[in-house]
Design goal:
85 residues; elongated; mainly alpha
C-alpha cells in the first residue's frame, strides 16, 4: 500500500516555488498580518505550505549534511579539540 505523506504527486517534480493546497503558487501575503507577522488563523484558513520534490530533497540534504559535519568534527577531531593546550 502506498501512502503519500508529503502529497508530492499533485505538484511538479522539479519546481522552485512552494504551492498551496490548490496547486497554485503559495501566496505568503495571505498568512501574514499587516505588520508582516505570521497569522496562524489565516494559515489554517488558507492552506499549508507544500514543497515540490526537489525543493523538499534540497532541505533534507542540507539538514543531513549539516548534522554530518558536526558529528564528523566531534568524532574525528574531538580529542584534539578537547585539548586546548
Amino acid at each position: 500500500m502506498y501512502f503519500q505523506s508529503w502529497k508530492l504527486a499533485y505538484f511538479p517534480i522539479s519546481g522552485n516555488v512552494p504551492f498551496d493546497k490548490f496547486g497554485k503558487i503559495y501566496d505568503i501575503a495571505r498568512v501574514l498580518t499587516p505588520e508582516d507577522r505570521f497569522d496562524l488563523e489565516a494559515y489554517n484558513a488558507y492552506s499549508p505550505l507544500f514543497l515540490p520534490a526537489t525543493y523538499a530533497m534540497t532541505y533534507l540534504i542540507a539538514f543531513t549534511l549539516s548534522t554530518c559535519v558536526i558529528v564528523h568534527t566531534v568524532l574525528y577531531h574531538g580529542p584534539h579539540l578537547a585539548k586546548w593546550d
